[in-house]
Amino acid sequence: MERAVTLLSGGLDSFLSTSLAKKECDTVLGLTFDYGQKAVKQEIKAAQKMAKEWRIKHQIVDLPWLKTLGHSALTSAQTLLPRFHGSEKLSDKKTTEKSAEAVWVPNRNGVFLNIAGAFAESLGATVIITGFNREEAATFPDNGSEFVHRINRALELSTFLYPPKVKSYVQSLTKTEMVEKLLSLDLPLDNFWSCYEGEEKMCGTCESCARSITAFKANNFLEKIRHRFIQVS
């Protein structure tokens, strides 16, 4: 089995991807990044529970300077998050592109993966697990297979002892397909956090929540998970 480091945001994507990786990887470390995001406490809480369940070491990496770059709605209290009431807006390309611009943190995933590469090389881990998926790749270029291909080429040149490769085990899936897979594997859905906000419950109206709600609804599971959201449209 290959040793692996996983990027754990506490969300459905990284949760499923890491779960699927268990068939071929010995995951030795879970990394969660604190870059001043609004949901950081909830993300860390969710990631810690997942790591404990898998019995893997969990480490928080502080990146306070990343919050100072730009005015992302993920980090800035002065920038409002775009709201999605219902699933209709998710199919409108202009709306989702505008939302992507609002929550964009400069080179965030590039920074995360290069840091993960350093951890991986030091641990002799040859795989970096992510939750990149087909649905988010449509609007976020740093989620797509082309990005993975290019970052892997860069890691080949920037590492020496144990060159790691980035891999997402949900790269070809949509959110609906991911929820279907989670349910088919009977994986617990009590601990994930897929909201841009950091309240006691997920807001239900940010783009991340809207995508999750739509996926749960498509799998006839929304009523069982409704209590996790403040609002469900």
Blueprint (SSEs and pairs):
Layout: E1 2-7, H1 12-21, E2 25-34, H2 40-54, E3 57-62, H3 93-103, H4 108-123, E4 127-130, H5 134-137, H6 145-158, E5 165-168, H7 175-184, H8 207-218, H9 222-225
Parallel strand pairs: 1-2, 1-4, 2-3, 4-5
Helix pairs in contact: 7-8
Q: What about the largest sheet?
A: 5 strands, parallel
Q: What is the domain total for the residues?
A: 1
Helicity level: 40-55%
State the CATH superfamily name.
HUPs
What fraction of residues sit in β-strands? 5-15%
Would you mind describing this structure in some detail?
This protein is an alpha/beta fold. The protein has one domain (2-228): Rossmann fold. The chain contains nine helices and five strands; from the N terminus they run βαβαβααβααβααα. The chain has helices at residues 12-21, 40-54, 93-103, 108-123, 134-137, 145-158, 175-184, 207-218, 222-225, and strands at 2-7, 25-34, 57-62, 127-130, 165-168. The chain has a five-stranded parallel beta sheet with strand order 3-2-1-4-5, sandwiched between helices. Strand 1 (2-7), helix 1 and strand 2 (25-34) form a beta-alpha-beta unit. Helix 7 crosses helix 8 (207-218). The longest helix is centred in the middle third of the chain and has 16 residues, at 108-123. The protein starts with a strand and ends in an 8-residue tail after the last helix. The model has no long low-confidence stretch (mean pLDDT 97).
Features of this protein?
single chain; alpha/beta; Rossmann fold; 5-stranded parallel sheet; globular
